[in-house]
Amino acid sequence: MQNAIGKPFFNIFAKLFLLQMSTYILGIESSCDDTSAAVLKDTVVLSNVIANQDVHKTYGGVVPELASRAHQQNIIPVVEVALRKANIGKNQLSAVAFTRGPGLLGSLLVGTSFAKSFAMGLNIPMIEVDHLKAHILSHFIADSGSQSPPVFPYLCLTVSGGHTQIVRVESPETMEIIGHTIDDAAGEAFDKAAKIMGLPYPGGPEIDKLAKIGNPKAFAFSEPNIGGLDYSFSGLKTAFLYFLRDQLKKDDDFIENNKADLAASIQSTIINILLKKLKIAAQQTGIRHIAIAGGVSANSGLRLAMQKTAEELRWDIYLPKLQYSTDNAAMIAVAGYFKYLNQDFASQDLTPYSRSTNK
Ligand code: KG4
Ligand code: ZN
């Protein structure tokens, strides 16, 4: 039996030993509507395969039941392609890392069950990964031309379809949420605004495209007045809906005639809201290393605004490559790699979780 002093020493030696060896991790992501598998050699991406589910486009949003079925269809082929592209055999894998949550339960069950059987079949450890932490650690994915990873401690604005958070990141293991949305997420604000305008799902990229040719000052929408570092986006969605309803009473073609300006105006409002709190967070914590992550971090307006703010406030900023902004398994594998170094493995009886305690 190990005593309290022995264990940390053992861990340090184990970690140093593991750092000398190459680790091959298979990552599995199935939390929403993308089935993804990736293979990483330590933090270097050997493959990152994503199967998108077009089936949801017809419905204007993700249909959970259809998502789980599509994961069930896609998971084996996606893993096979990921291994082939990485040019390694199953037996070379050191561990399998998978998203445990948060996300759609049916979708998570497919990835979790796959990981359990795969790990058991190969007699390798499995590693549970929190989807949001993986977005935050996506900056450590090493890829050709990728930026050097953030310096600890850094702040990460995590902006996805289901979450909006400012996180203080001390290390891959230690993170603290210092601000979060009290209602909708930033991605939801993009998607809902797009839906109101009759644009296809997912709306974020559509708004982004239109905004590039629109005037961001054409229409003004009031910003929420929420205390501390928290966010709120549900009021903006309602304001946008009512504004369009009133304009449509006067002009049936109002949306069609003002598409680009509407997109640019709603996008710039969302970005202003996001950056306002991020600036306060940087000022309060004194941290100047600032990252963004999650699907909305692919937004070209947000990236530009981050660059401008960085010049103004002398921040060092970290913008993920586009393929690692939206959901992908490489980020699951890299988060798994850090846990592997700590020999932090999951047990076969775990179950997925659909919600995190904070939004
Ligand atoms: O991280 P993610 O792929 O999945 C979740 O974990 O939710 O984020 C998806 C969200 C969607 O709301 C989508 O509309 C948004 O990211 N998104 C964007 C852009 N690309 C994806 N929002 C604004 N601009 C984009 N270019
Ligand atoms: Zn995500």
The chain-level mean pLDDT equals: 93
Strand content: 15-25%
Q: Count of helical segments?
A: 10
Instruction: From the 3D structure, determine the CATH topology of the largest domain.
Output: Nucleotidyltransferase, domain 5
CATH class of the largest domain: Alpha Beta
Estimate the global geometry from the Cα principal axes. globular
- In angstroms, what separates the terminal alpha carbons? 40 Å
In total, how many domains does the architecture comprise? 2
Strand order of the largest sheet: 3-2-1-4-5
Order of helices and strands: HEEEHEHEHEEEHHHHEHEH
Q: How many runs of DSSP E, i.e. beta strands?
A: 10
Question: Radius of gyration over alpha carbons?
Answer: 21 Å
Helix content: 40-55%
